[in-house]
Amino acid sequence: KPTQDWWRTSTVYQVYPKSFHDTTGSGTGDIRGLTKKLDYIKGLGIDIVWLQPVYVSPQNDNGYDVADYYNIDPAYGTMDDFDELVSELKSRDMHLMIDIVVNHSSIEHRWFKEAASSKDNPYRDYYIWKEPASDGGPPNNWQSKFGGPAWQLDEETGQYYLTLFDKTQADLNWENEKVRQEVVELLTFWAQKGVDGFRLDVINLISKNQDFPDDDGSIPPGDGRKFYTDGPRVHEYVKELNEKVFRPYNLVTVGEMSSTTLEHCIQYSRPEENEFSMTFSFHHLKVDYPNGQKWELMPYDFEELKRVLSRWQIGMYEGGGWNALFWNNHDQPRALTRFTDDRRYRKESAKLLATTVHGLQGTPYVYQGEEIGMPDPKWNDMNEFRDVESRNMYDILQEKGKSAEEAAHIISVRSRDNARLPMSWDDREQAGFTSGTPWIKIDERYREINAQLEMDDPGSIYHHYRKLIEFRKTVPVLTDGRYVRLDEGHPQVYAYARVNKQQTVVVISNFSDQEVSFRFPDAFFKELDLKAEAELMLGNTVEAPPLAEIVRLQPYGSYMWLIN
Ligand code: TEU
């Protein structure tokens, strides 16, 4: 096993298997498809591959509805394919992180089938059941994150069960120590199969306020989340998993923290707490949500973006926590389209986003396709969408008074499907993803945007990522340096430094299509001691400006300098 904290200089590559590479012609990706592409991923300098769920699942939420935690869904292959992936990764000195979805299971899981069969079934309390309210309706007013009530009525036994996500994803009852024991056992099973880490899905939602009170709406969004987000026993439960599995197997772990706080993330990820290695938080990806509302649109708030990133950099550094760094994942529209220009300045923009996040403190995550500058696609009609959340919201938005066109537009901007199109490998039919009919459409720009073109071009986005990933291993200040924000509210420029006793790295990015000037704060510039010539580590334009008190930046210009 690698040395302690080896993952602080690592970079993780996130694989959405359904859309990565299909070797059977089924139209969906599979495990062998990933194994065949390991040299492509290794070529980036990636250390850890995060494989999203491939367990037995009815696929209502693309595998985040698990029906059997111990077996591979035939759509993705076999356990032998999984074992081959593990050994092929190890032979390349790479590591495997798998997705663990234990806030809820599919209602197809045998535990749920048993539980729903009768009130006194021994599995009944594996889930959260409540009597109907006096009016016969749901026990409280909590809302599902995919729209609609968070409770489903089981006619058989006349009780409701909790479903914070899709109605086929039943929340597990973590108050029940048998459930906690089941989770320890399944984690141990996969650890013994040689995985090196876990990504734990919405793990901060597992402890619910046992009164299950109505949400009075006094704190937005008023959907009940304040009664189960970072709940009363969550840290206790996580410490138990750490003690029984994470630590004994020296695993790297990342908790996905829905709607969390900086204070909790410090506690979840400080080594002394023995909980997780690091946490995903999402506040920087809500700066284009008007009043936190995902399903309303507004241009993103650039100052708020910089404020949130800075707050988390400074807070986690001072608190001893550790950030998972990312712009993209399978639940978010692609940052290239969302925050920059995916047309005229696509290459500069993709490199700017990479430089901006890879200069921060934490472990960076590269979501499949971002390393080749894949954008959001152009959507033509609602039948092209697959995501359960998007399909639900299309109806709900219209029930709330939006026209069909307005609802379709909002969905096209916000849908998680924006990031779920198959990887564009080359300019063959179906972009080299499948020889069959893809489960979701191929990006219409695949002939100009694909992995083959990127690998062949030394000045590509792919090679920009490769250099950044290498820097994380070779430039210590990127790991331990203190973060200093350098732009004091500049309307287009984000500038920061990372500082330790030996080195300083300066990162400046122009998030606009205008040429702009940036002036360093006097104090910092004097402190910089530029006599020790600043070395340009990486830029995204042919000509890079010299590092000086005033820097002139081209449209979407982004530069990283090292001062030793
Ligand atoms: O995501 C949880 C999550 O925070 C997002 O899905 C968000 O709540 C949703 O997009 C509503 O805005 C995790 C997985 O990443 C996601 O794919 C699953 O659908 C979800 O949990 C349920 O397992």
TrEMBL record:
SUPFAM superfamilies: (Trans)glycosidases (SSF51445), Glycosyl hydrolase domain (SSF51011). Residues 14-420 form the Glycosyl hydrolase family 13 catalytic domain. Its EC number is 3.2.1.93. Belongs to the glycosyl hydrolase 13 family. GO terms for biological process: trehalose catabolic process. Gene3D superfamilies: Glycosidases, Golgi alpha-mannosidase II, Oligo-1,6-glucosidase, Domain 2. GO terms for molecular function: alpha,alpha-phosphotrehalase activity; alpha-amylase activity. Keywords: Glycosidase, Hydrolase. The lineage of its organism: Bacteria, Bacillati, Bacillota, Bacilli, Bacillales. The keyword Hydrolase applies. This is Alpha,alpha-phosphotrehalase. It is an enzyme of class 3 (hydrolase). GO terms for cellular component: cytoplasm. It comes from Paenibacillus lemnae. The keyword Cell division does not apply.
